[in-house]
Amino acid sequence: MSAEYAQPTADLSQARRDLDERGYCIVPNVLSRAEIAALKDRLVEQAAGERARGVAFHDGGPSRPNQRVWMLLNKGRVFRDLMLHPIVEALMGHLLGPDFLVSSFTANIAHPGGEPMVLHTDQGYVGFWTPRPVVANIAWMLDDFSEANGGTRLVAGSHLDQRATPRSSAYAPEEPANMPRLEDTIAAEGPAGSILCFDGRIWHGTGANRTDRPRHALLSYHCRPFIRQQENFTLGLDPSVREGERPALLNRLGFATWAGLGRVEAPRPAAPLFVTPGAVGPLGADGAPLESLT
User: What is d(CA 75, CA 94) in angstroms, rounded to the nearest whole number?
Assistant: First the structure.
């Protein structure tokens, strides 16, 4: 990579500068070998199970060789633990503020034969450029990322280019006049255990895996606390997981009020919603419940 591109760095101050100036950073050695093995083993097992059950999701072109695994927070404690890794707070807190949420946590297994993903921004649905990101992403590399195996392709610095921003809603897409092309991109490369963190405004897309082995990655997508999350954890999180999960993670999944948003009754700043919410049902004038209306 030339100097205009972000170099892998363990210096988090430099990583934050790379995010600000280039729209992405690569941090090596975030995960230990044991952590990589545990995450990859659970992912591979889950992916095989979803294929066997007939519920697997595939994409990556007409032959659909790539497999996506959704809602990882239901699919293993090892995934839930990862969302409390200190690197998440260090980088997402910088990009999105201290009260950021997990928007979704999924996996992409890029198999040989897949096509490059169409270049896009992760907050394209906003419909206009924002001076600061409202969403951001971390790709957790469970295999080495290289240009040959489809490492995520990025247009460095494009997060600062207002002209290359979608100008309409996701329901009526309009291609920007100077939308970046695949030839404008570089591939994010790094050894297994590294992370690629990127601003939600940067143009990017999964590359094509031209090797003979699949490439495994986890994708944790994060948002500011006033943005609707991609995965609906209130409805989708397994009740048994919710009941036994740590407050710190539940808060990060949106099970807490923020600035009066997400409340049940009167605003209670920072009141966790995983405790009894105190919802008020229909009442008579004497304050007694009106059971006939429930």
Answer: 28
